[in-house]
Structure prediction request, 295 residues.
Amino acid sequence: MSTLRELKSRIGSVASTEKTTSAMKMISSAKMRKATWQLHRLSPYRDMVQSVISHLLLTDTEFTSPLISQREVKNVAIVVFGSDDGLCGAYNINIFKQVLAHINTQRKQSPAPIGFTIVPVGKKVRKAVSKIVGAGVKMLAFDYMHTRSTQNDLSNFTQELKERFMNGEFDRVDVAYMHFKSTSRQVFTIDQLLPVSYQMLMDSVDAANASAPCLFEPDAMSIFNSVLPLHVRAMVQEVFAESAASEQAARVMAMQTASDNAKELLDALNLEYNKLRQQSITTELLDIIGGQVER
Prediction:
């Protein structure tokens, strides 16, 4: 009977785990919906900024800005967006491995040595990055930047990156994050944030929507230098929202897997419990029958 009691205790523990993981999945699903809604909310702002840039680039003006100036790349900053909390499977490990592979690839492709500064956003990523600091890799952490940062924090963070780029501390700033495709699919992505690629801006020009003539006041160059920082900020906001949605999606899948595994184990334990219980009942009946025969 002690075996039955042990099995019953294990069944209760596994059943509790299954309920907990199911509840956590529901919470993560709600957070994921909120993050994807926030991501969709950013689309009109990003589209408006892109529309203004499209109108500007269709003029004959030759634009210049510190944010698009190209120079020899000696120091690269990589802003890595991860998570503060665990229970999201291999989400942070995959990001870290991909960033490490990206650094090694950049070193092989560059004829001159490149120094890397990793800017982690998220406690889990910061902990992983701290293990590879040294040998040309530095870490720059901003305590106010985490997965629950406000829009003001993002604005300050973007401004800090721009200032460090313009004063020459960084020659290029990349952002590494998980691009949200669906609940079951997130794709690791590295985009160049600074300098803003002028060719990328030209490639994204929507000539159909920007074909109407416009009058720019005071002048196209001034407006371009005012709008370009908004483009950079919109990109950081979008990456932050993409990362938040991907994190919750990874957590949903991790909780789903844990719940499924717990359910399978629960079914196996119930089957074993029923077998032992039936065996115990059969043994008791045989003992009763054997006692009656002896009489």
